Each structure stands twice: as structure tokens, then as C-alpha cells.
Amino acid sequence: MKILVTGAAGVVGTDFCYVLKNAGYDVCRTDMNCETGIIHLDVRDIMEVRSVVSNEHPGLVIHLAAETDVDRCQIDPDHAYRTNTVGTWNVALTCQKEDIPMVYVSTAGVFDGEKAEPYVEFDEPNPVNIYGKAKLEGERLVARLLSRYFIVRAAWMIGGGVAKDKKFVGKIMKQIDAGAKELKAVNDKVGSITYSLDFSRCLADLIKTDFYGLYHMANKGTCTRYDVARHVLDSLGRDDVVLNAVTSEAFVLPAPRARSEMLRNYMLELSGVDSMRDWRAALNDYLEKHFAYAKRAM
């Protein structure tokens, strides 16, 4: 089967295309960033979406293309909705027209964070920022337009290595590489991490089934940003770097953040297809693969 992937040059897209190819799929990679072997596709242009899908004849479309910068979405809502909602609408409409199943990757950011326990698929979304609202509207469009779809919510994403990691772990590593001897990390927000490689493997298993519907897909266990930073430093033996726990007030950001983005993969558990590891094991694997150079000799 040929699988068309939007956002293939991104962190998840890179890992997912690698996993799919190793599994024997014919992968059509598309993105606005035209790296070698990638077809240009701006999902905000429905005519371009229809043209690429019509030319490639995929048996499945994996929609990863998105604006994931939460603060940029808050500053420019038009950009957020045009990319994350209208772009998803265009892909879903095309899949409807061509009768193609679709995978839409969404976010734990659709929840307001007021629940004390991890969110499951049966909890009611109520996003607190524009990013979450735009992604939730994308979910609703996919569910309204299609009967064969997977909507998969990820949590705090880690992945991409030195070249592509612009998220929390990547920022920590850039500070360490720059010689920082003191770091700050927030300890009043809690969530789940999603390692892009684990996510890709689990999603590849899920699409082999016909268990269409809504899923959470995060690594097991919960943590704060401080916990993640502490684990990074401990795993790398960086006792030369001091880590200070701070509240969210230490970082003034345009977009509000939910107190909790904890996810439980309840539907994966019930379906017997949950292969996501504990977050510590996943983070260890990521650090070993991409940041082993930063280990301090003991």
C-alpha cells in the first residue's frame, strides 16, 4: 500500500516515514520544506492537496503537517486556524472525495488541564489557547467528514535530535552545549511525553488494524518539565549543571498553558495495541541516540 504523509520533513514525519519504509510500505513524503525526495505540498491550498493526492493514488493519508508553535498560534490566530483547521479540512475533504482513510495527529492541548488524573479519550475537550482550539476544530472536521479515520493525540513531543529538536529537550541541550552551568525548569505543570520514534512505531501498528476512532498515544507515566530536565542531566552525568525548579511565572509567554497535559492511552490499552514505553526509558533511548556526545566522563 502507498501511504501519503503530509509534514514529512518534521520531527514526527521523519521518524514515521523511516518506520513505514522499514515496514515495507511505499511512502509518498510531502511537505512545504522540500528536502530530497519530498514533494511540495501546502495543505492550506486545497487545489494542491487534491492534485497531489490524485497524482499519487495513496491507500492511506497520514496528516502530520501543522503549526506546532503554541505562542505563534496565540499571536496570529488566522495563521493557526488556516494551517491547523483549514489545512486539516482540505485534507479531510480530499480523502472524502477519493474515499481514502485518514490519520490526523492532534494534541493533549485540547484539554483545559483541570482534571487531577490523566485524560482519557472519553473526557470532554476544552482548550485554553488558540493552538488547542485550532487542533480541536481539525478533529471535529475529520470526524464529521469521514467514516474511516484515526484521530491520535500526542503529548509533549520529544524527537528530532540536534538538527530538528526545537522543543523542551532540544532547548535544554542547546543550553548545555553553550556551556550553561545553571538551568531553570517549571515544576507546576504536569504532562506526558511522546517520543516521536515510539509514537511512529505504535501508530504503524495501529494503522494495520481497522480499529478506526480516537486514540491517545503518549509514553507511560507523567512528569513535570523539571522532572524531564532532571532526568536529562542525570542520564548524561551532568552534575556540573545546577537545575533550579521554578513556577510558570518565571517565563512570560503569549499563550496560556494548561496545568495538566497528562494522557492515558486508554483506547490503545482496551484494543491491545499499546506499545508505548515508560517515559524514562523512551527519554534514555532518545538521549543515547542523539546526545551521547554530551555525556560527562565520570
- How many helix segments? 11
Shape assignment: globular
**Largest sheet data:** 7 strands, parallel
Distance between the termini: 49 Å
Q: Count the strands?
A: 14
Mean model confidence by pLDDT = 97
Quote the beta fraction.
15-25%
Name the CATH superfamily assignment of the domain at 2-166 and 194-220 and 264-277: NAD(P)-binding Rossmann-like Domain
The radius of gyration computed from the alpha-carbon positions, rounded to a whole number of angstroms, is 19 Å
CATH architecture classification of the domain at 2-166 and 194-220 and 264-277? 3-Layer(aba) Sandwich
CATH topology of the domain at 2-166 and 194-220 and 264-277: Rossmann fold
Q: Looking across the biggest beta sheet, what order are the strands in? A: 3-2-1-4-5-6-11
CATH class of the domain at 2-166 and 194-220 and 264-277: Alpha Beta
Structure characterization notes:
There is one protein chain. Helix 1 links the parallel strand 1 and strand 2 (26-31). Helix 1 (11-22) packs across helix 8 and helix 9 packs across helix 11 (279-290). The chain has helices at 11-22, 46-56, 70-75, 77-98, 130-145, 161-164, 168-177, 196-206, 225-235, 266-271, 279-290; strands at residues 2-6, 26-31, 39-40, 60-63, 102-107, 149-154, 156-158, 182-186, 190-191, 193-195, 213-216, 223-224, 242-246, 260-261. The protein is globular, with a radius of gyration of 19 Å. The chain is of the alpha/beta class. 41% of the residues lie in helices and 18% in strands. The longest helix has 22 residues, at 77-98. The strands form 4 sheets. The protein has a 7-stranded parallel beta sheet, with helices on both faces. The chain has a 3-stranded mixed beta sheet with strand order 12-9-14. The mean pLDDT is 97.
